[in-house]
Give the backbone structure.
Amino acid sequence: MRVLVINSGSSSLKYQVRDTGTNEVAATGLIDRIGEDAGGPADHAEAMEQVAAALAGELADKPLDAVGHRVVHGGERFSEPVLINNEITRSIERLNPLAPLHNPANVLGIRAITAKWPDMPQVAVFDTAFHRTLPEHAWRYAVPDELYRQYGIRRYGFHGTSHEFVTARAAELLGVPLAGFNAVVAHLGNGVSLTAIQGGASIDTSMGFTPLEGLVMGTRSGDIDPSILIFLQRQGLSADEIDTMLNRDSGLKALFGDNDMRTIVDAAAAGDRRAQTALDITSYRLAKYIGGYHVAVGGTHALVFTAGIGENSAEFRAQAVARLGALGVKLDGAANLERSGAPRVISAPDSLIPVLVVPTDEERAIAEATAAVVLSS
């Protein structure tokens, strides 16, 4: 099946055409500056016209069979990918308050496809769906119940498509049945999330009501004392100013002045104290979460690194794992330095917990999920 995978942002539209039978990527691209005064398309419908034009040659002899959309927030309604119709689109739209920067753009992408190809099957694949298996003691916050009942304030978790994809491949690599596989999966990119896997399912995850909670990220703060927000508001900062600070001006960017891990690692190696402090804080927080999730799953079968930093920064992996000596985790230095796009074990033979690097491929996961939904409908 030939699937067009759409990742629609507020001012951009990423796309990829993938054949789920051969896993061949036939086309990929990005339309940006949507709605901006910079020569970009006026709206997502116009962006979709540009995508169609770019794909015209590909579509001529091998037409598309379906479209799969990455949708950031599925709330409590969606626990698996679904075939899109008008009611589903409206349901996604009703979740806009939970993801105001993402879901509205996702809906615009869906409506653009509907307008361009009204008979094309479309499937929504939700970032939050994999985490719908969280038990209540993991997803509930200790706040008044009406906040959950009225506003849906609870832990949702994100990066679920990536975590699910990587979990299955890690279990396969180790020869462990997925239903009996316990793991700690570290999705380390500009956004960072850790997930505790028990029996192949998510039972806890570091991101919460929004992707801001949890670990130190590229520009996001991760966990901080909530009273800081109240203090800052009393100092005269607006809600929008606080939001911008925590989501766009914090994390590695605040600690070092740059959120590129490669730059930070190089600067630390050259003796830059701020860079080393940024690495110390980030690796310490990560190791703390790994230890906690090892307990949560009842003993992990593997620690799995994925995404941009997790897959490519041997230096950061080494710093994080060096803090896990109490768990008997050890890296094989040569294996950790190996450059490979394949899933692999990088731990030492005497490590009590295997350490894996498993590349993620969210587009492939979305394409496969889309094909499965369409074929079963």
The two ends are 14 Å apart (CA to CA). The domain at 2-126 is CATH 3.30.420.40 (Nucleotidyltransferase; domain 5).
